[in-house]
Amino acid sequence: MSRKPITRRSAIGRLLAGGALVAAPALPARLWAAQPPEGARLSDGRLTIEFDAAMRSRLLLDGKALTPLASAEALLPVDSAPVDHFLLLDHAEEAVSGPHGAGRRHVLRGTAEGALEQQIAITFFDRYPGLALYEVQYRNTGKAPLGVAGWRVATHDLLDHPDGAWSFAGASYPDRRDWIQPVGPGFEQRNFMGMNGSDYGGGTPVAVVWRRDAGIAVGHVETVPRLVSLPVAAQPGGTRLGLSGDEPAMLEPGAVLTLPAAFVMAHRGDYFAPLDAYRRIMAERGLAAPAIPETAYGPVWCAWGYERKFTPDQVYGTLPKARDLGFEWAVIDDGWQRAEGDWRVETERFPRGDEDMRAFATRIKSYGMRPRLWLAPLAVDPGTPLLRDHPDMLLLDRNGAAQNVSWWNAFTLCPAYEPTVDYFRKLVRQIIGDWGFEGLKLDGQHLNGVAPCYNPAHNHARPEESYEKLQDFWKAIHDEVMAINPQAVVEICPCGDSFAFHNIPAMNNTPASDPTSSWQVRLKGKTFKALMGPAAPYSGDHVELSDGGRDFASTYGIGGIPASKFTYPEDAPKPTEPLPPGGFKLTPEKEALWRKWIDLYRANRLAQGTYRGELYDIGFDKPEAHVVSMDKQLHYAFYADAWRGKLPLRGLEAGEYALADGFSGADLGRVRGPEALLDARFEGFLLVRATPVAGGAA
What we know:
Elements (H helix, E strand, L loop, with lengths): L13 E2 L4 E3 L16 E5 L3 E6 L4 E5 L2 E2 L8 E4 L9 E12 L2 E12 L3 E10 L5 E10 L5 E14 L5 E7 L8 E4 L4 E2 L13 E8 L4 E6 L11 E4 L2 E8 L3 E3 L4 E3 L3 E6 L4 H13 L15 E3 L9 H14 L3 E4 L4 E3 L2 E4 L8 H13 L3 E6 L3 E2 L4 H5 L14 E2 L4 E3 L5 H17 L4 E5 L21 H4 L1 H15 L4 E5 L16 E2 L6 H14 L6 E2 L12 H6 L5 E2 L23 H17 L5 E2 L12 E7 L2 E17 L5 E7 L5 E7 L2 E22 L1
Parallel strand pairs: 23-24, 23-35, 24-27, 27-31, 31-32, 33-34
Antiparallel strand pairs: 1-2, 2-21, 3-4, 4-5, 5-6, 7-12, 8-9, 9-10, 10-11, 11-21, 11-22, 12-19, 12-20, 13-14, 13-16, 15-18, 16-17, 17-22, 18-19, 25-26, 28-30, 29-30, 36-37, 37-38, 38-41, 39-40, 39-41
Helix pairs in contact: 1-8, 5-7
């Protein structure tokens, strides 16, 4: 494909999914140094970045080296070795101020044999100690076009530690793997932000690797998702991470390739602090969670225990018990519709169609509960009227094939095609405005990311528009709902995916999204409290998905919202999937336990407290620990198969605290802050509530 030359003075540019060909802004002449330096040392007093004369760099935290000297940035030409050594020509700096506050910007410029210029602008900000923003450009200063196969930025090896390392990666995979994992020999994960399966893709464009004493985070800070990778791989002597792209480009003489704006952060503790900093930076760039209504924190009962063939009578028979236990939401799950993509009401159980759905919502409200309805936007089954009448909505690959949604054997619609957006906005108006439901459960692993779309009917400027504008589709749905009912809940449940950060402005509630273990309930909770805010309205999903099917403690302890899909008085008569031992029916023994946990949640509402994720390292601290601050109390949660020993109580202020078992209420004595230890013995979990003694704590 031919491209017109793009010069330093030209305003012409063509965005690429992993980089952009743009005009290079002329930097003020006053910035440039008179003589080429032998190296450069940039620092904010916490993070130091040292460059040598070949523009190789290393990272230091509080003066201690975290990485060896290496070529962290490189351009990868087609059919030739990476260009990763540049003679440093000059280094300049200036004070800056903007959305991220006051800071200092450094600009380094180098050349590779006079044929390729590399410019790295690194900015430190006063309010983000230890973090630097990277803006990297390459300019073809030669006389011939340069084919580009890819690039890398901020690629470093975190040096080994005797205790090993842990990693967080924001990519999505069909095996629904843990978002955080220990880094062992041979560990390698590409962390591509595009599709890693036909319906698994997207995520949070951040990778973190940390040791017991320090860590490094890398990510991009573009306000639209990019088709980039954040590979993490074990290396001899360390763990490598960085940001890379492999979208081909042709760099004409004088043209400039501008890479996605990135960040590097050196930190203490686990991955929580870097994700929290990323959230705040993105909010300052205009991408933030919406206002959260009080209703978003209500405990959730879902009818999914009765599966797709649920009947209204089964739901009506369970609602009094659900309300009596303290559940505030009733979710009508998959099965009310005729098919995915045929969103007309199923008439065997709802013979009056729309009138029956209005009556269903009204009946739920009569029990003092709020109705929420399941929906799988963008999925369309073969043979449905929507696909028959609007085949133009399909997302097609470069060969004209549809993108499969494996769970329902459905196809994916293009979120960047206006008729698709309009169709679902109209459907939402019917569900919320006409039928009277007060929330949506938007469900399916296909919600998190989509492939580039080549459907000629859509007239996309670039195929990547479908991927980049998915966030706009969800925002249109959210805004349509909230315009009708400002107290409504919009839940996005991208089953098993690593949640796409760019979709967060379009939701005010999220679950653990089909966790495979209680460990996933907790680690996903910690992640969301970083990415969405310390009071994120996060649910541990149906407790029946946790270890043993009754582990409310994992949801409660991380400040999550309890949820269940229990049936009452009996299980679904003909389940399509094998029931767990004991089934889902609410037995008297279960009822007592469910009531205990829901009462405890409603009494303390920890989901609305401040999750203190910086206090404990989920990888290295044993036992695993979490803490939520609420109304001057600190609520600790410790988890282990079995534990006997001392527990550090972090986050206390100076003064005396009365301790109590957060589950049983038993007196655990008193301690004095700010540093305290509790001698404890438990199996499974221990909740500790620390209350300041009047006059004893500041």
